[in-house]
From TrEMBL:
Subcellular locations according to the entry: Cell membrane
Topological category with respect to the lipid bilayer: Multi-pass membrane protein
InterPro entries: MurJ, Poly_Biosynth_Transport
Function (record text): Involved in peptidoglycan biosynthesis. Transports lipid-linked peptidoglycan precursors from the inner to the outer leaflet of the cytoplasmic membrane.
Protein known as: Uncharacterized protein
Primary location recorded for the protein, binned into one broad class: membrane
Organism: Nannocystis pusilla
Keywords associated with the record: Cell membrane, Cell shape, Membrane, Peptidoglycan synthesis, Transmembrane, Transmembrane helix
């Protein structure tokens, strides 16, 4: 048992490092592109990347789960259905991934003309169209490595994908290639990662693995719901960019979309960082649910909601307070035009993050329909607000729509957690949090540095101001943070 615990601990560290590396590499690509291509091209790159990310993430997360869960259940029994589960996974990958690839490749002209209002993007969409099929097959291999606990190999694939994607995309841009060729770097990187995954799976095949000739274990109960849920989550992140692209008619608006894309990228940092909360809490809440421990679930979900809101307000208040400086720090000077949008986007995306975190809590407690409903709230609100505001105010309208949608999602999520799981947050805690945010806003207006070293100093000062307010008011205590890290004993 000690050996198993050590293996899982090392694997968790490997995967954590790989995910962080992948995240940093993704931001490095976008920051590099703002310096290598015109703003309009960068905006188009971001839009196409976000559109293809929707089916990519749906396929990889759903197929990884569908393969890993039943295979993991057979691990101690020697994996008698190993080959059969993999064959079933590849059939599903070919069906789902192949269908999406056909839609993108054959329907690129229609998607570009009617969905994005830009026929020139057909070549770029066609270039990335094969990626969903590659990712679907890749997910089967990643799910296999996950199930047989070869976490270091799984982490290695993430790192390899990030490195090759960064090198090929940035290299293509540096050599002056167009948008389709730049995105072709993504396609080629996915092919290379898939080839490496085949080698890893072949090397790691367990000696006891069986052919799976008999009846196979059933897939997870909510695989279908997970597919719809993941699609909704990823659509939510891309919706503002798609709306903007539909209303882009002039060269100035195309550049403005590029500037907005940079702010959108920065605003995703709190969202991306909070993914770790979902990964940690999912198995713990599922375990407590299996034990029917209502009181323990209520305490844990309350603590999760409290700390999540604290972290989101911390990151968002600092990002919003120093929005002009952040844009100047990361991007060329022209991208500073999007500072106002960043102030709104960072709060809207934080609302998205809280909504998704709450939805995962309901998923892990077997309330997937409620999870889907929570994701639907900001989707509907952003769509409605965007169609009203974007034609009038363009990028500021899109950012306002995201802020409204994020706020709606956050409010509904907190109400749902309180009514369904008893995880109500104290009004006093919310007031303390609001006071910390207000302090950061006041401090941010006292100084506007222009040099990069001084910008970093300002960011540190804003962070210190927020944390000082939290410490003085005892809004969140170190004991509460430590409590979330403890795994409940059965």
């Amino acid at each position: 048992m000690a050996t198993d615990a050590s293996e899982l601990s090392k694997g968790g560290l490997s995967l954590g490092f790989a995910k962080l590396f992948f995240l940093i590499a993704g931001y490095a690509v976008s920051i590099a592109l703002t310096r290598l291509v015109p703003p309009g091209t960068f905006g188009d790159y971001t839009v196409v990347s976000q559109i293809i990310a929707i089916p990519n993430m749906v396929l990889i997360q759903t197929l990884l789960f569908a393969v890993s869960r039943p295979m993991s259940a057979e691990f101690d029994a020697g994996l008698p259905s190993y080959d059969g589960l993999r064959r079933r996974g590849f059939r599903l990958a070919a069906g789902l991934g192949g269908l999406v690839a056909v839609v993108f490749i054959l329907g690129a002209d229609l998607l570009a003309e009617y969905a994005l209002k830009d026929p020139a993007l057909a070549g770029a969409l066609r270039m990335v169209g094969i990626i969903p099929l590659i990712y679907a097959a890749y997910a089967v291999n990643v799910g296999t490595l996950n199930a047989i606990r070869k976490f270091q190999f799984q982490a290695g694939l993430d790192i390899f994908m990030a490195m090759t994607k960064t090198t090929l995309i940035v290299g293509a841009a540096a050599m002056g290639f167009g948008l389709a060729e730049i995105l072709g770097g993504f396609t080629f990187a996915s092919l290379l990662a898939f080839a490496l995954s085949i080698l890893f799976v072949a090397r790691c095949r367990p000696r006891t693995a069986g052919g799976g000739a008999g009846p196979l274990p059933a897939m997870a109960e909510f695989t279908g719901l997970l597919l719809v849920f993941t699609a909704g989550v990823n659509l939510l992140q891309a919706l503002d960019l798609v709306l903007l692209k539909q209303f882009t008619t002039t060269a100035a608006q195309k550049d403005a979309l590029g500037f907005y894309s940079s702010a959108n990228l920065v605003a995703r940092v709190p969202y991306s960082m909070m993914n770790a909360v979902s990964l940690v809490m999912f198995p713990l809440i599922a375990s407590l649910q299996a034990q029917s421990d209502r009181a323990q679930i209520e305490r844990y979900v309350t603590a999760t909601a409290k700390v999540s809101l604290f972290l989101l307000c911390f990151m968002s208040s600092v990002g919003a307070g120093a929005a002009p400086e952040v844009q100047r720090l990361l991007f060329p000077a022209a991208y500073g035009e999007a500072a106002g949008e960043l102030r709104l986007l960072v709060w809207g995306m934080s609302g998205y993050s809280l909504t998704v975190t709450a939805a995962w809590i309901f998923n892990s407690s077997r309330r997937s329909q409620l999870a889907l409903l929570l994701i639907a709230v900001p989707l509907v609100v952003v769509s409605a607000a965007g169609f009203v505001l974007v034609p009038q105010s363009f990028t500021s309208g899109a950012a306002t729509a995201v802020a409204i949608g994020g706020a709606a999602g956050a409010i509904v999520s907190l109400v749902a957690l309180a009514r369904s799981l008893g995880a109500a947050l104290s009004p006093v805690f919310l007031v303390k949090l609001l006071a910390a945010v207000a302090l950061v806003e006041v401090v941010s207006r006292t100084w506007a540095p222009t040099s990069k070293p001084l910008i970093l100093v300002k960011l540190a000062l804003l962070a210190a101001a927020f944390l000082a307010a939290i410490v003085v008011t005892r809004a969140v205590t170190p004991a509460e943070l430590r409590e979330l890290r403890k795994k409940r004993a059965p």
